[in-house]
Design brief:
The chain has about 100 residues and is an all-alpha fold. Helices cover about 65% and strands about 0% of the residues. It is elongated.
Length: about 100
């Protein structure tokens, strides 16, 4: 029983995302914690996202640049992780104690 060309293309196309996800995870683990590198202001974005996730008047920091969508996305991720796995009493403490959780 021969596999037709269309099925073979779909099979190869479905393997590609799995390969890229595994490769990305491998690279991320090889790099180590975010504080080892200084290519991107990761912790500044993390703290601004945490401030936004708390929804209080602490101030958001940098909201006037192209990183604002990243702050909003980070706030959603921080809030979701806090609701699922909150080790501390507040979002700020949880983010400070586990900055590389994701």
């Amino acid at each position: 029983m021969a596999i037709n060309k269309k099925a073979k293309k779909y099979f190869l196309l479905s393997i590609l995302p799995v390969y890229f996800i595994c490769f990305t995870i491998l690279l991320r683990n090889t790099e180590g914690p975010y504080y080892n590198g200084d290519a991107d202001p990761s912790y500044v974005y993390l703290i601004n996202s945490a401030n936004l996730a708390q929804m209080n008047s602490l101030g958001l920091g940098h909201v006037d640049h192209p990183g604002t969508p990243l702050h909003i996305l980070g706030a959603f991720v921080i809030k979701a992780i806090f609701l699922i796995n909150n080790d501390k009493d507040s979002i700020a403490e949880d983010v400070i104690y586990h900055p590389d959780h994701i």
